[in-house]
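Entry 14. Structure prediction run on the chain below.
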Amino acid sequence: MKHLLNVLYVITEDSYISKQGETICVHVGGEEKVRVPAHTVESIVCFGHTTVSTPLLGFLGERGIGLSFLSESGRFYSRMEGPVRGNVLLRKAQYAAASDPAKASQLAYWFVVCKIANSRNVLLRATREHTDPSAAVVLKKAAESMAAIVADLRPDAGLDTLRGLEGSAAYIYFGVFDGMIRANRDDFFFRGRSRRPPLDNMNAIMSFLYALLANDVRSALEAVGLDPAMGFLHALRPGRPSLALDLMEELRAWLCDRLALSLVNLRQLQGKDFETTPTSVRLADKARRELITAWQKRKREELEHPFLEESVPIGLIPFVQAQLLARHLRGDLDSYPPFHWK
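Output returned:
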């Protein structure tokens, strides 16, 4: 089993990252703030304005350590990696599956089924935890409606039908999402999904966590030799990591949304932790630090993988799912086993 290594998140503005021997160093204003042994780092994620030394770029490429650049709010800018890993036969099988409508529909079916099932379980968990009986009833009814959509899904339905049903389920889920927010209602509410830019505090948290998950999933796909851009459910577009978005669907609700709700309901984030303008809301530095700390802590927790039937750190689940997808595409598994959270 792959070991869970660290992701080095650099969030301080105008940081300078370099190498000294076998260590990665972060300086701010000429003062060294962090020194990390390179063998413990899987990837580096930079937020905002960050400068990276040329020797470090070469070092990261040689060691297979990914380097990503995101905006302060988590919007993806670019990613650097070394030589492509994996073998050409696996990618050939991936491209062939994506070009086969029946095969693409079958894989998209598993992504959609598990996304809806896991989102439904998030609602049911919130129902049991809620102190307001009337709000719990609304959440439970929404969960029942999503279960009905799952019953209508078929592997041979075709991509357009699967995308339509996935959209219907998402409409139901986000339609009651506000009911899962139980604290600081003046500062935290949900009136609908808004991205680029987020228009409220809750959307700012979710977008940031989704960006962290996207980076981890993309890294996992590259690590097993799959092409993150060649997906099955999400339409192909230049620069879009469609397969990473596909794989995220089964992880997004229970990993990112649950964490966002926990931080808000436990009052670990406050309204003062956000910067608001007439056109957008962004996380202040304190909020980004709080989210990254909580994200890393969550990744170290373990749960039993439903297919492997063994305990796995949550941070390794994207890698495990990427491995299982690769095994299916190579013909080692009859079907792809998505991650079903209970």
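The chain has two domains: 6-80, 88-330.
Filed with the rest of this week's runs.
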